[in-house]
Design goal:
Oligomer: single chain
Distance between the termini: 42 Å
Number of strands: 0
Helix content: over 70%
Shape: globular
Structural class: mainly alpha
Number of helices: 8
Order of helices and strands: HHHHHHHH
Length: 154
């Protein structure tokens, strides 16, 4: 990551965009492959089942939104494959999601990453940075959950 952030912004963004397209697309492909065979023999776990239900219900916007979360990207992209979302429909969610992810990581995300690696040398700074990051992640999660609940209730 440090190497990519040292490049001109446009090249860094383009590289990150390409990386996430390939990674997420491969995860979707694995989901499709599993749906074609293994899924018929053994049902998915509850977390994957919830992601599959969301993808089936909301489609491409769920794929796009997954790139704003930490940890949900892989599950949602695999779920899109498991529910056999068509590839053109999947791309409608993947491309803007990858663009958002690349923008975050080529700007603010890279700064946080660099700060975290530098703070690793000073224990107190690392603890403060970890706490601030956790608070931000929880706050974004709470707001997203309330927004979803309000949307569903409307």
């Amino acid at each position: 990551m440090a190497e990519i952030t040292s490049w001109p912004w446009g090249w860094a963004w383009l590289s990150l965009f390409g990386i996430v397209l390939l990674r997420a697309g491969a995860t979707y492909g694995i989901g499709r492959a599993v749906a074609a065979g293994v899924l018929h023999q053994r049902p998915p776990g509850p977390g994957v089942r919830r992601a599959m239900d969301r993808v089936e219900q909301w489609g491409p916007p769920v794929v796009t939104a997954s790139f704003l979360t930490v940890g949900a990207q892989t599950v949602v992209n695999a779920a899109a494959g498991l529910v056999t979302m068509t590839f053109p429909r999947y791309l409608l969610g993947l491309v803007p999601g990858a663009a958002i992810w690349a923008t975050i990581w080529s700007t603010v995300g890279a700064g946080i990453f660099v700060a975290a690696t530098r703070a690793g040398s000073d224990r107190d700074e690392a603890i403060v940075l970890a706490i601030v990051t956790m608070v931000l992640v929880v706050a974004v999660g709470v707001v997203a959950q309330r927004t979803r609940r309000d949307t569903v209730e409307s």
